[in-house]
Design a protein that fits this description.
- The complex is a heterodimer of chains A (about 325) and B (about 450).
- Chain A is about 60% helix and about 0% strand.
- Chain A has about 325 residues and is mainly alpha-helical.
- In chain B, the strands form four sheets. A six-stranded mixed beta sheet of chain B has the order 1-14-13-17-15-16.
- In chain B, helix 4 packs across helix 7.
- The chains are: A mainly alpha (about 325), B alpha/beta (about 450).
């Protein structure tokens, strides 16, 4: 010991870092990843590979050659976007469509705003919505590819439950098995396959204190209450709470996408307002919109409200009640 | 449900490695250097000069204002010099240098360890003794104790809170005195209670110190049975959470009340004193013993178990003397802290002298304490969740870096208690408190300037 370090307090740190938090998010998504690969096989694995590799590589190239700044891929945030984007795509998506999605997610939605911490919209959702609008055929092709297990389940192909309701009314989904949906949903994006896998990730994120439950729970509660009221009034016309909670991207969106630090409000109250907004917009789109599913649009719209919500919602201060 | 404060807070590992080390008395060094700035407020004015003979416990400096305190010699000997010497931060401050000769104490000091439980009646005389014996708050801020015990006219103390939280990791000096000097602490509490008009008195201790809770409760029960003036004193166990020992947080935890911004605890009827201060009050009032000793912890993960210590020291002993006596500075130590790791000061000058408020020599390794490079804010909100004042450090950081003083004031930067929870929690390693601390100083200057203009 030759020289003493001198710096202002505090002298200890929690040792939580951006990297450790992002790595935890990736770990939390693993159950959903594993389930989708098991049921959708090699083509799903390819999508994950292309998505993660292109997101990470793009961020590397952009920081190094375009922005000429220290490279930030080491913080795992590009990997999070990659996994999340893949979870948001049908298992049949061609690799080049995935690549375009990654370019929009990282290149446009994230890096043009200044990289991590600066983006207004969730990169993965921006990528997904861009693809949904640009390549509707690919993005709504719900054919189930050959998986490693569960080949007998592909009785219904070509539509998600939400799509079936939009097409053929509520009677089209009269004989859905909810228990089945809990473990491996009938059709949809990779990440929409298993509600349990997503909930396992949710529990992990809560236990590791990566996220707080307010946003997720307020979205789910809003969806349940909103659909519950409509269903109670007219069950022949409107789908019920259980159906709306277990189908489509509501779980994936509320656990992994709406809780994105950068694009969600800072305060707990703000988080609840944000969540209620997403829930209401999702249900409005599902019941009355042109698209069968509205979670992505709802999150994007509410992302744009975050600066306003942050402006009006502050934390409760000591001694200033 | 155990009580704690209602906003924010963090849970660092408590690392009380030295908690089972009994208090040992440090032998006298050949020289002490007694600082004139041992308390919050104006430095004291020396009343001795080179060549003077002094006894231990003799006044060597007088207060230089209302918020200031007497300073006494901690040893007997000859004053060698009165002049500038570097303090722990390396700044010059007037010190009285004394060559130690024998160990002779000034007249009128009761050196016996006989417990005196009878509480004097005359409040004025008690306050005078506390003041003359140089008692200051030993919880960190070293605010002169008698000032806190004289509520301004129109304000009345409803609850005296004794702070035994010791929420800073590593520190164990308060814990040890609660185990070894419990009855003296309770007598001190009863004296302060009497001064404040007999209000309710709560000794707040965190649940991670069950022994202290037990011993202090027993001391209270014993004194309530055997002597007069001890009614209304109780021990409250608190949920472990940092910064429980923050004055504002402790008031919230114990009384469920919050001190208004820029207000004082007495505004909500609270007076908070540290357990070590209570011990000093006992010594001053019952034994006429000035505040010339205190207990400090020598600890750190890089010290083996047999080199962890709690020492009773005389003020003015150089820190380097304490370190040497304890076996030297460990090889792996990269930083030495005086105080806790959350709010303590990094020692720039290990040769500086101990002061009344010295509470530790804490050795931290580079792996523990070197800060990581700052990266972009990811807006996770962990700083806001951690802030026990309910502030939004991420926002204050942004305003401060852009010099937005009005916004800083609107968002209550002046309420920051500098506990360090924000910086501790930030995953992007943003030096939040460093920046907020500077902004807070600027904003408080603006507020004071405005108030001065109005007058």
């Amino acid at each position: 010991m030759d020289k003493l370090l001198v710096s202002p307090s505090p002298h200890l740190h929690a040792k939580t870092s951006t990297t450790s938090l992002m790595r935890d998010v990736v770990i939390a998504m693993l159950p959903a990843v594993v389930v989708s690969v098991l049921f959708y096989g090699w083509s799903e694995l390819l999508i994950f590979g292309v998505s993660v590799a292109s997101c990470v590589l793009l961020e590397y190239l952009i920081t190094k050659y375009l922005l000429k700044r220290p490279c930030t891929v080491g913080d795992w945030s590009a990997a999070v976007t990659g996994v999340l984007l893949a979870l948001n795509l049908p298992a049949t998506t061609p690799w080049w469509v995935v690549l375009i999605g990654a370019i929009v997610a990282i290149g446009v939605a994230k890096m043009t705003f200044g990289g991590i911490g600066q983006n207004l919209f969730n990169p993965a959702i921006a990528g997904r919505v861009f693809l949904l609008i640009s390549f509707p055929t690919y993005m709504t092709d719900w054919t189930r590819p050959q998986g490693f297990i569960g080949n007998g389940l592909d009785a219904m192909t070509g539509a998600t439950p939400l799509g079936m309701v939009k097409e053929g009314g509520i009677s089209a989904v009269a004989d859905l098995d909810y228990l089945d949906m809990l473990f491996h949903n009938i059709g949809g994006s990779a990440g929409e396959l298993s509600a349990l896998a997503i909930l396992a990730g949710f529990v992990y994120l809560l236990v590791r204190r990566v996220i707080k439950p307010y946003i997720t729970l307020s979205i789910l509660a809003t969806v349940a209450i909103f659909s519950g009221i409509f269903w109670a009034v007219n069950p022949a016309e409107y789908t019920g709470p259980l159906f709306n909670l277990l189908t489509g991207g509501i779980l994936l969106g509320s656990v992994f996408m709406a809780t994105d630090y950068v694009t969600s409000p800072m305060s707990n109250l703000g988080g609840v307002i944000f969540g209620v907004g997403i829930g209401v917009l999702t249900m409005l789109i599902r019941y009355f919109g042109a698209y069968p599913e509205g979670v992505s649009f709802a999150i994007l719209i509410m992302n744009s409200m975050v600066p306003l919500i942050n402006k009006w919602c502050h934390s409760r201060k000591y001694g200033r009640a | 449900m155990m009580k704690t404060f209602s906003i924010g807070g963090i849970h660092p590992a408590d690392s009380k490695i030295s908690k089972d080390c009994r208090i040992e008395v440090l032998p006298l060094p050949s020289k002490v250097f007694i600082s004139m700035a041992q308390h919050l407020g104006a430095p004291a004015v020396p009343v001795v000069k080179a060549g003077d003979k002094v006894k231990a416990g003799q006044v060597i400096a007088e207060p230089a204002g209302f918020i200031s305190a007497y300073v006494h010699s901690s040893v007997s000997g000859t004053v060698k010099s009165v002049g500038p010497r570097k303090d722990i931060a390396g700044n010059n401050m007037v010190h009285v240098e004394i060559d130690v000769e024998g160990d002779e104490w000034a007249d009128g000091i009761d050196l016996s360890d006989k417990l005196v439980t009878e509480i004097p009646e005359d409040v004025k005389a008690i306050l005078e003794k506390i003041k003359l014996n140089g008692v200051v708050g030993l919880g960190g801020a070293t605010f002169p104790a008698h000032v806190k015990l004289c509520p301004p006219p129109g304000k009345k103390a409803e609850c005296l809170i004794l702070n035994g939280a010791e929420c800073e990791p590593y520190l164990t000096s308060d814990y040890r005195i609660m185990l070894e000097r419990s009855r003296e602490i309770v007598v001190g509490a009863a004296i302060m209670k009497h001064v404040l008009g007999g209000c309710r008195t709560v000794i707040g201790i965190e649940e991670n110190k069950p022994e202290a809770i037990r011993v202090m409760s027993e001391a209270v029960a014993e004194l309530q049975k055997s002597a007069k003036g001890y009614e209304g004193i109780s021990v409250m166990s608190l949920k472990k959470k940092y910064p429980q020992g923050g004055e504002k947080q402790l008031i919230d935890a114990v009384m469920g009340r919050q001190v208004k911004s820029m207000g004082l605890p007495i505004d909500v009827g609270a007076v908070v004193q540290n357990v070590a201060t209570s011990l000093a009050v006992y010594e001053a009032v019952q034994k006429n013993m000035p505040l010339v000793t205190n207990v400090l912890t020598v600890t750190g993960d890089c010290l083996p178990a047999d080199r962890q210590h709690n020492y009773k020291f005389r003020i003015g002993m150089p820190l380097s003397y304490v370190a040497e006596y304890a076996g030297g500075v460990p090889e792996q130590a990269a930083k030495i802290i005086s105080g806790g790791p959350m709010m303590g000061k990094a020692i720039a000058n290990p040769d500086a002298a101990t002061v009344k408020g010295s509470s530790s020599l804490l050795y931290l390794t580079a792996a523990q304490t070197v800060r990581q490079a700052e990266s972009a804010c990811i807006r996770c909100g962990k700083c806001a969740d951690a802030c026990p004042m309910g502030l939004e450090p991420f926002l204050l950081n942004k305003y401060a870096r852009n010099g937005m003083m009005d916004e800083l004031e609107e968002n209550a930067v002046q309420d920051c208690i500098e506990c360090g929870c924000c910086l501790y929690s930030c995953p992007a390693n943003i030096p939040l408190l460093d920046i907020i601390r500077i902004a807070k100083g600027d904003v408080i200057r603006i507020i004071r300037g405005r108030a001065a203009q109005k007058k």
